[in-house]
Amino acid sequence: MTGSANEILMAIIRKEAGQIDAAMQADIDGLTARVDQLLVDVLRYSLFNGGKRIRPLLTVLAARLCGRDDPEIYQLARAFEYLHAATLMHDDVIDNADTRRGRPSVHVRFGTVAAILAGDYLHARSMAIVGALAGSEALNVLSDATGRMVDGEFLQVRNASCFNLSEEDYQRAILEKTGLLIAAACEVGALWAGGTEEQRNAVREYGLCLGSAFQVIDDLLDYQGKTSATGKRVGNDLVEGKMTYPLIVTVKRAEKSDRERLCQIIGEPALRRIALDEVTGLILKYDGFHMARKKAEDMAIAALEPLAIFSDLTRGREKKAMQGLVQYVLSREK
Amino acid sequence: MTGSANEILMAIIRKEAGQIDAAMQADIDGLTARVDQLLVDVLRYSLFNGGKRIRPLLTVLAARLCGRDDPEIYQLARAFEYLHAATLMHDDVIDNADTRRGRPSVHVRFGTVAAILAGDYLHARSMAIVGALAGSEALNVLSDATGRMVDGEFLQVRNASCFNLSEEDYQRAILEKTGLLIAAACEVGALWAGGTEEQRNAVREYGLCLGSAFQVIDDLLDYQGKTSATGKRVGNDLVEGKMTYPLIVTVKRAEKSDRERLCQIIGEPALRRIALDEVTGLILKYDGFHMARKKAEDMAIAALEPLAIFSDLTRGREKKAMQGLVQYVLSREK
Question: CATH homologous superfamily of domain B3-331?
Fold first, then answer.
């Protein structure tokens, strides 16, 4: 990344994350008199946790890129942080994940009941905001993304321990798990801004590719990340039997004896729990981590292409920031 | 209830439930090619379970009462069965309820993961339908109801084992738990139909009172229902420490020694599990069941009043059915 794109991105993240936080804060403050204090506490805990606000930021950037910029955008954008937080709360219950960004996850801190309910609350709030501010077409985009995200989770359950998972199955899974919601954050921004069909499709395509690249890196960090940086235990996906890209390509490329051993490990939950080093060794042997990184890079390049239609120089700053985000996704360590 | 109102209601329930089921069926059939088979199976299991379709029926009736009637109403109405089913799936996880209408509940049959996710799916679908067909004001009504329903669940957690729960707290709890969603089913029907402000408020008020009466009867059946009819274990609320109306009035009216004994039981989970007969005896002693029934009847009367504004004779059939529903709620045994 050029120094300037990176600097622009960081300046924008700092400034816009503050605005997005303020919009969420105002919303929660308004709730305090009306709802149970425990619900307010759970919402604050789940929303204000050091998140980088990438999804709402994308809504803001996409809207500006499509030519509209007024303070209402922050009210709209926060819907995507709400939906993201709702997803994380339910996911952590489902995956039995104890920590999130280095803190106890919501269900550990407040109980499963609170995590399910507060997730439902933010889900409803998020859809109401999008419907009210961006209209029913935007609401459809969002609900389609949510629906397919759920489908992706079911797929993930089905795919678990599936030794022969294909690359195509994996791509569908990451698209549904991450890509579609990030694409929706962009597309809804474009709809709110009254962008053209071409603009809307371009930011959507950007979001799909960016989100998919993001998820491949996420899956890579599950093996290679530092717990001190990610706040998550290394090797969680393996323990859960999740077939992610490094493992999929390794299974595909491995010699017979290695493949049989991998098959044995993946098929036995007890083995998966103690075989992280061995599996990591095999992935390294067959270059699975490099191949995963290459995959993420290909997707990142594909994310940049649709931005080419935005040639209006007055929106150069937003375009640079969106390009910077692509690089940021590739280089992140948490 | 006069014979004719009852006959009209039963004929309408039979006919409309069939139409509503067909609209849901078409939706699910359309999904089959697009989403994971397990998700489809869970949706079918949770939606086609002998439910009476009261909520979507109310949307249909309210819309017609406000002067609009075309087949699109079934597409809109099903959203309320979806939201209801979503709520039940999450509730059963939260309450650890093993059965629902005499069958294993969704999380018992398909697992907690499936129950949470399928609930999220129906929640999103329901909001998208309402936003698309009835507009963003209707979406706000729905999301406000959902939000307050969540608040009601938090309140319920807070109220559990609260010996001194007031009648007002209980009323807020049942309003949020049941009344608001039933009111929303009516109000959204009125909005879709383009009803006047007066009509909209009237059907909303009707729904609030009907829903509250419904919940009081539900709480009564938890003590007095037959498992063979309700499909639920008797005494569940007591085991969970839920303070419902029969218990609240008994605590309030009991002599010192009885009150102290109740206090002791309510405060100890192990005691609650074995004290159903004793508590039932005390409720009978202080007439708590009669008082609860009286409460439900008062609410039912309050539900009928707002319908007075609908004097158009061409809509007599819908009005009669809505009046019949009030009586139906009072007389139900499951």
Answer: Farnesyl Diphosphate Synthase (1.10.600.10)
